[in-house]
Amino acid sequence: MSLLVLAYPAIEKKDYDWLQSVRAKYDERYFKIIEPHFTIVFPVFDMDEKVFIDHVQKVTKNIKTFYFVLRCSQVVKDSFSDYYDIFLIPEEGYRIFVKLHDSLYTGILEKELRIDIPFIPHLGIGNNKDSFACKNIADDINNKGVEIVGAVNKLDIVSYANDQVKLVQQVFLD
Known about the structure:
The protein has 174 residues and is α+β, with helices and mostly antiparallel strands. It has helices at residues 13-26, 49-60, 94-104, 131-143; strands at residues 2-7, 10-11, 38-45, 66-77, 84-92, 123-128, 148-152, 154-161, 164-172.
């Protein structure tokens, strides 16, 4: 089992429905496992749940709700498999995601940070082993002028094991 910190975006229903229609078509790895989300802290193994929760609550106690706009799709090679991922990248709000991520990877999580893998705030919408198939999908999305405005008003601490995501604790942002 691992622990993660996720941000499920607060977005309009029409945008959620569009995301899910794209994910249903192109996200062969995660669509059936998890809702659209931003990963803020990636899987952490062998850490006491209470210690993890306390750290997240302490670090985020002064973090306020923030907004983002997704307008750009990008293909990124998965660091742990032979898949390529299709990400929606926040054009606005990018720096806030980065600062939140970096602040959580302090203290007890400092040694968990994979400095060899760049952190790109993203909402995953597809994946495939064929990089050019991913590129064509990303180009198509970019040509459509997609714009999704949303907010992050809470963080979910979840556990992940056997392709199941379970809510452990929610941390609400001011």
